[in-house]
Amino acid sequence: MPAIRVLDDHLVNRIAAGEVVERPASVVKELVENSLDALASTIEIALEDGGRRLIRVADDGSGMERDDALLALERHATSKLSRFEDLDAIETLGFRGEALPSIAAVSRFVLTTAARDGDGTEIVVRGGRIESVREIGCPRGTSVAVAGLFASVPARRKFLRGAPTELAHVVRMVSRFALAHPEVRFRLDHEGRRLLDAPPAVDRAERVAQILGRESAAKLLPFQRALPGIEAHGFVGRPVDASPRRDQQHLFVNGRAVQDRVLSHAAGEAYAHAVARGLHPALILFVEIDPARVDVNVHPQKTEVRFARSSEVHDAVRDAIASALSSAGAVPELRDLRPRTNPEPAYAATAAAAWRGPATLAEKAPASLLDEGSPAVEPGRRAVPLAQYRDSYIVAQDALGILLVDQHVAHERVLFERYLAEVERDAVPVQRLLFPVTVELPRDEAVLAAAEAEELRRLGFVLEAFGGNTIRLDAVPAFAREVAPEALFRTLIGEAARTRSVATGVPELRRRLVTSASCQAAIKVNYPLTHEGMQRLLDDLFVTDNPTTCPHGRPILFRLTLDEIERAFRRR
Ligand code: ADP
Ligand code: MG
After folding, report:
1. pLDDT averaged per 10 residues in sequence order, the chain, 572 residues
2. Any idea what DSSP says for residue 556?
3. Which of 234, 280, 381, 562 is deepest in the core (most CB within 10 A)?
4. CA-CA-CA-CA torsion sign (269, 275, 279, 284)
């Protein structure tokens, strides 16, 4: 046996890199944590080839003096921890002092940093050894470029997935940082395309809207519960919007994204009664806890934590979420998260503008019925909404009488015609998914999806088939962005599998698929609409080819004519 010897630093770094650095997202994680620890107010991340070719993270934080910058590249060099006791009360994100040397050991690495404007240092590291150090003029802050991750370590390089997958991991990672730090501006670019731009947000709700999109954010229920030494707060999705995907859940402890069984279990208990098995509502959970009561040092990537007195944490989290869900019917103020202009979908309600309910009906309806000069009786077919009944039916008037319109089937008709026309022109606007969805399908459907990828693309579903039973969904038709993409795709491919034999030719199949997608994407009943939203829906409906019957053959509206009304009241 060879003699025992101490490993040289370079080798130790390479080994450590295996713990800290797994893929581009973990590099981004370490670099962004450093930027946050340096109190940056702007953090810009740029990638090429999903981070496989290049990762650059630039911040406007404290920066480093030349000597500190050189020291930072040495193993266990950290400015954040000097005494053993400090381990109990860590508030910064990094503290092991191994990230920079580990990353530098497995890439071509350039650190540019300045503690004062114009007075900077650039250090180039290749193969783990410092190649050059020079002065450069750059603004205060730090920029780290990591090129060719694992290029020199083929055994690890081959574990990297394709660019889209690696990119998706980075997007998730950056989104989580952005959720945890609303005061910091985050930007993420991939090959010149801006994927995320979150300017400093006034509060968490605003940041959540920036990251999840206004419409999704508006559907979330906020919660908050404080006990001595612990606070649980955040946002949970409504049970009706729950999806099979757990990755819509983001957990944070003291500003750090974590995976933790205690917390997910607590969340699960909170919604167990409201949500079907296997489904999970979206969840953004922040736990603020006395640092002495949580150990963050149990995992090299610091994604796992251990709580002292974990049952207290568990119950606080469960109760906080449960109370939000139980009062879900009684929290209209959430709709305030919706933007006042251009709501998505176009018909959605805002609290201020929602115009419905008996009081409003009594106030407004008689006036506009009597007011002959109002647009209500303008010539042509324009129907004007009077009220929304049970959040499901639009009561409207037109030149002939009073209309009762089923909002779901009306919207379905509108979507159907537009969508079909777009498919015919091969011009369906698509929405790229921030997080591509992996869908596991029955074998026959997976084969069908692969074989019909081109037709599906025409329908607005961009997917990649991996062989086997799995496909990855990268984009969906833009009009369907409100719908759980996986459920929508499953319905569609299920429908295609069912009808392929019976449908005669492409046009018929297309029609069926378009029908099915439109139905799923259309606004549902029990969904409040604004007055403007109702007007737009009616206007859209009456320019369709068939405003009275939905694509499935159900009636969309019925009319009580003035003549019928007058007869009923024996005025005639
Ligand atoms: P750790 O974050 O665990 O201390 P790192 O290897 O990530 O270890 O970083 C080493 C040191 O380099 C940090 O402690 C910090 O002093 C300095 N440093 C790293 N990145 C930055 C940055 N973006 N801005 C300012 N200082 C930084
Ligand atoms: Mg660090």
Report:
1. 60 61 92 95 96 97 95 71 49 63 92 96 91 95 95 82 88 94 95 91 92 86 90 90 80 91 91 76 94 77 81 92 71 28 42 29 27 35 89 91 93 92 89 84 80 88 84 88 82 77 64 86 88 91 85 84 88 85
2. -
3. 234
4. negative
Supply the residue whose CA is at minimum distance from atom 25 of ligand 1. 63
Other Cβ atoms less than 10 A from the Cβ of 547: the count is 19
Task: Please tell me the total number of residues recorded for the chain in this structure.
Answer: 572
- Ligand 1: which atom is nearest the Cα of residue 77? 10
Backbone angles phi, psi at 425, to 5 degrees: -85, 0
Give residue 278's identity as a one-letter amino acid code: G
Instruction: Please calculate the CA angle 553-410-434 and round it to the nearest 5 degrees.
Output: 110
Global pTM value? 0.58
Q: Which helix (H) or strand (E) holds 33?
A: helix 24-37
Place of tokens 């805002």: 350
Is the CB of residue 73 less than 8 Å from the CB of residue 104? yes
Counts of helices then strands in the chain (DSSP H, E)? 18, 22
Residue 81 phi, psi (nearest 5) = -150, 120
Measured distance CA(208)–CA(409) in Å, rounded: 31
d(CA 407, CA 556): 8
* Maximal C-alpha separation, the chain: 112
| Residue 40 CB–ligand 1 contact under 6 Å | no
Report how far ligand 1's centroid is from the alpha carbon of 82 (Å): 14
Q: Indicate the top mutation candidate among 13, 29, 45, 78 to test ligand 1's pocket, ranked by most ligand atoms within 8 A of CB.
A: 78
Distance CA 528, CA 353 (A): 10
* Ligand 1 proximity of 80 Cβ (cutoff 6 Å): yes
Instruction: Give me the long-range contacts of 158-164 (CB less than 8 A, separation at least 24).
Output: 159/22, 159/23, 160/23, 160/24, 160/52, 161/23, 162/50, 163/49, 163/50, 163/51, 163/52, 164/50, 164/436, 164/464, 164/472, 164/474
| Cα dihedral 97/53/258/102 (nearest 10) | -20
Positions of E strands within 401-499 = 401-406, 430-440, 462-465, 470-477
- Please compute Rg for the chain using Cα positions: 28
CA-closest residue to ligand 1 atom 17? 72
Quick check: 107 and 150 in contact, CB under 8 A?
yes
Residue 486 corresponds to which tokens in the numbers above? 């996986």
Give the distance (Å) from ligand 2 centre to CA of residue 375.
64
User: Is any atom of ligand 1 closer than 6 Å to the C-beta of 243?
Assistant: no
The residue contributing the CA closest to ligand 1 atom 18 is 34
CB 540 within 8 A of CB 414: yes
The finding on whether 104 has its CB within 6 A of some atom of ligand 1 is no
